[in-house]
Amino acid sequence: MGWNAVGVVVLGVAAIEARSIALAGFGLDSVVEIGASSVVLWELTNSSKNRQATALRLIGVGFILLALYVAAQSSVVLLTGYHPKHSLLGIGWTAVTALVMFTLAAGKARTGRELQNPVLQLEGRVTFVDGLLATAVLIGLVLNTTLHAWWADPLAGYVIVFYAIKESLAIFSGHD
Predict the structure, then answer these.
(1) Of 25, 70, 82, 91, whose Cβ has the fewest other Cβ atoms within 10 Å?
(2) Do the beta carbons of residue 52 and residue 119 sit within 8 Å?
(3) Average pLDDT of the segment spanning 132-152
């Protein structure tokens, strides 16, 4: 959780400086990740089926709220033609974050399988999605910085929306 807490602050600063919806959305995704980690710790203290179901629903609601916010903001940015600024801080942070998240995701997934714990396995998927999202945001930031492709920032936001919806649907439909 420590990496994500620092990440929320760094991404918040970078998002405000650049006025980037992709960075803001990724920062909010980090808040969902912190919440998911907290839910997993809570669930692991008493791994009953009822507690697992509640934990999964809480994570799913976090994804739905994230998708709604980022979809609305990305749409406004695209419709108004707003041009975010460049963010070297955002580029550096998302590059490092992608590497860290992919490594953590593999460890969480392996541990979840070994413990046969679906909530911990879901947490591994959440972390993997964070790595994918960091990569999408990184691509959007790099395109905006190098090619002045302002539209890449809100499109990276839509990547966050897609994965948030995908994960929430998987949670609420009961499929992994």
Answers:
(1) 82
(2) yes
(3) 92
